Amino acid sequence: MRVTGFLRRQRRRQRGAAAVEMAIIAPVAFLLLIGIIEFSLVFFTTLVMQYAVREGARYAVTGRADQSPGERLNSVVAVIRNQSLGYYDSICTPLSVNGTVSSSGNAATVLGAPGDIVVLRVDCTWKLATPIVAAVFPNGVYKFAVAATMQNEQFYQ
After folding, report:
1. Alpha-carbon distances of 12 from 3, 17, 109, rounded to whole Å
2. What is the pLDDT of residue 103?
3. Which residue, of 32, 53, 111, 125, has the greatest Cβ tally within 10 A?
4. Which residues pair with 150 in a beta bridge?
5. What is the rounded CA–CA span in Å between residue 49 and residue 123?
6. Does the pLDDT value for residue 82 go beyond 70?
7. Do the Cβ atoms of 136 and 85 come closer than 8 Å?
8. Distance (Å, rounded) from C-alpha 121 to C-alpha 145?
9. Which residue has the higher pLDDT, 70 or 128?
10. 59 φ/ψ sector (left φ>0, alpha ψ -120 to 50, else beta)
11. According to the per-residue pLDDT averaged within each range, which of 64-73, 84-93, 106-115 is highest?
12. Cα–Cα distance list, 70 to 10, 50, 75, 106 (Å)
């Protein structure tokens, strides 16, 4: 009987131990999980924008002789918008073509002539939601640039 009395007392002392352990571990585990999700979103966004700019560059180098230069530039931006899953308008600055921002450049020369090298670049800013992950980046913002370089096809003007 003495042994069972000892075991009962020990069992009583253990009640609530799991709740205390969970209270200590849960915040760390949730923070780690949220951090993994945040970093995943950052890398996903970078890859989506890289894909969108590459598709825009593929479209740009075809020349599209049936369009005026201004329409051609607008079509390239439209392709990037369509491929970016909506991120282009919310996180990106205007498209830069060969170092010239598309909104300020002359549309007739910005995309180049047949055989020219075309560089499309988009600068993006992603605001981080998690304070601890945001502390890793300057001002809590992840800034990145995506670019694609291709040579224009020998299209007819």
Report:
1. 14, 10, 82
2. 57
3. 53
4. 118
5. 10
6. yes
7. no
8. 7
9. 128
10. alpha
11. 84-93
12. 81, 24, 9, 8
Segment 27-80, tens digit of pLDDT: 999 988 988 999 899 999 999 999 999 999 998 888 666 677 677 888 888 999
Burial grade of 104 (CB within 10 A; 0-12, 13-18, 19 or more): exposed
Determine the Cα angle at 145 with ends 141 and 148, to 5°: 160
Q: How many residues would you count in the chain?
A: 157
Q: Which two tokens stand for residue 142?
A: 């992840």
Single-letter residue type at 30: F
Whether 148 contacts 54, CB under 8 Å: yes
DSSP 153: P
Can you tell me the distance from the alpha carbon of 63 to that of 72, in angstroms, rounded to the nearest whole number? 8
The mean pLDDT of 74-100, rounded to a whole number, is 85
Q: Could you tell me which of 70, 50, 61 has the C-alpha nearest to residue 148?
A: 50
